[in-house]
Please model this.
Amino acid sequence: MAQEHDASMMNNLYWWGIPTFFRAPNEAPEGADIALVGVPHSTGNGTTERDQHLGPRAVRHVSAVQRRVHGGVGIDPWARKVVDVGDVPFPRANDNEHCIQQITDFYETIDASGARPVSIGGDHSITGGIVQALGKGKIAGGEPISFLHLDAHTDVFTKVDHFLGAEKSAAHWGAYLADQGKVDPTRSMQIGLRGHPRTLDWLQPSYDYGYNVVTMADYRRRGAADVIAQAKDVLAGRPVYITFDLDCLDPTVAPAVSNIEPGVKGFDIDEVMALLHAARGLNIVGGDVVCLMPTKDSPNNITAMVAGAVMFEMISMIAENCES
Model:
C-alpha cells in the first residue's frame, strides 16, 4: 500500500519522470482509442514568432499535474486506451511544404489505425496537414469533415498566394482543404473571429466558401446559447474536427500566443469550454490546439496549462463517445 501511495504521489509531480501527455504510455496508435500527438512545426506561420514548435514539449511538461477525471462529463477518459504516439518528425523543419506532407503522411497511419488524434502544435498550418489525412478518411467514414473552428482569424486568406513564402500556411488551410473536398464549409463553424483587418472585406473569403461565421461581435450580440444551438445544428450528423487557436482566448487568459489580437476582448475559459461542448455526443474524428508560444509564457506556465486543459476537454468528449 505504501508503495502504491508513493507511486501515485510521484505521478502527480509534473517535473518527475518521462514527460508524455498526461502520462499516457508512449506507444503506437494501433489498438488505441485516442492518439495524442505533438506537431512541433513553426514555419507555416512565416513570421519571426517561430517558437510555436516548442508547444508540444511545454504541454507534456505540465500535463502530468492536470486533471485525470472529468466531473462535468462524468467520466474517467483514461479508462479508454489513450496513447502518446510522439511527435511528427521534421527533418527539413524550415521547409513548410515538406513539413505539411510529413504531417499528412504521419496522420494517414493514425487514421488507418482507427485511433482518433488529439494534437498540440505548432502553428495553425498543422491543421491543413492533419485534415489532408483525415478528410474522407477511415475515421470520417469517407466523408469530408466539418470544422468546429475557434479562432481570432479566418485562415481563409485567398487573396494572397503565400504567406512570406509558405504556401500551405497558417493563413490558407481553410481554403485549400475546401478546394480538395476534404472539408465541407457549409457544415462547418468559424467562431470568435476578431482579427485586425487590413481591408473591410476580410471575412468575404469565408462567406464565399460557405463557412458559417460567428464573429466575436456576433457572439457578444447573440449570446452563447444561440451560437451553441447553431453549432449543434450545423454539425449534427457530421464527422467533426475541432481546431482551437489559442488566440481566440483573451490575452489575459492565454498570454503566450502567436498573433495576439488586442483591442477586442476574446473568450474567457468558461466560454470556450461551453462552445467546445457543442460537439458533445457528435462523431469527433480528432482535434488540435495551436499557436502556443512557450518562450513568452508566464513563469507559472499558464498558457501551456490552458492548452492542456483544452486538449483534456477534447480527449474527454471523444472518450465519452467511445463509452456510449
Observations:
- The beta strands are 34-39, 82-87, 116-121, 146-150, 189-193, 212-215, 239-245, 283-290.
- Residues 145 and 183 are 5 Å apart (CA to CA).
- The longest strand covers residues 283-290.
